[in-house]
Amino acid sequence: MPTSTPPSPADASPDGAASNEYTVDELARVTDTTVRNVRAYQDRGLLTPPRKRGRVGIYDDTHVARLKVINHLLARGYTLANIQDLIKAIDDGHDLRSILGLENAIGGRWSHERPKTYSLADLVTMFGPQTPSSLARVTELGLLERRGLSFVAKTPGLIEAAAAMAREGIPVRELVDAIMIARPHFDAIARVLVDLVVRRLDRYDEGSLPPVTEVPALVEAIWRVRPLSATFVEGEMNRALEAASGDYLGGRVATILDKQLSGAARDEADKAGKPGAAPADGARETAGAAHGKREKP
């Protein structure tokens, strides 16, 4: 199987030493692929044809190196069409590690969280019993990925936060609803920010890679900008949450105060209108004055 380190596209024997030779069966076995794949790659131009020795095709270490490159890229999720473009770039003088470094800077994960596996019992403990439809909605959103009897979260921090909110009495259904409402907006924000990050590529012709000498500096610049984009989003999100919660709580508190004041005013009015109720200060003064007048001879 291909290793995680990208192989060199030209691992031929150094100093002009004789290269190893392989039949198609031997080549397939050495590179952990199939004869059918070898021939398919040849048909697509990904692999140069073998030398002929009589009726037998003879491959060498350059074919081994190229197949290792193809296997490595397939393992990273590239299609054969993508690989064809990359192979052309390699043939044009680009270094594979530089190309993959640029690809990783642009398309690599933005989160450093490690995926975490949860059993169904774990999820029940965290969220309480859930219906199959609830689990289906969560998996459709990609928050959890089902693997056999277990579930894998690519961003376990989000799952842990949701569990904490569920413990505070917020139903899981409402949490999922909130994510469904917010996601299109986050997607739009992400597209804008990614465009800002990779805009440095716009000065090159569309469909072509930057010059070999400029790739390392471009990769470093993109890696520097990436965390700044996340900080930008976090700052704006905090501002929006503060504004929304302030507006909501301010309105709620104002409503409560209005009710309290209205209730107090009604209570005073009720007391004033009851028989035998103590008269107000003004009424007592008036009554006292009248009583004093009657006591005079």
UniProtKB/TrEMBL annotation:
Gene3D superfamilies: 1.10.1660.10. Residues 1-21, 264-297 are annotated as: Disordered. Keywords: DNA-binding. The keyword S-adenosyl-L-methionine does not apply. Residues 10-19 have a biased composition (Low complexity). Residues 21-89 form the HTH merR-type domain. This is Transcriptional regulator, MerR family. It comes from Burkholderia plantarii.
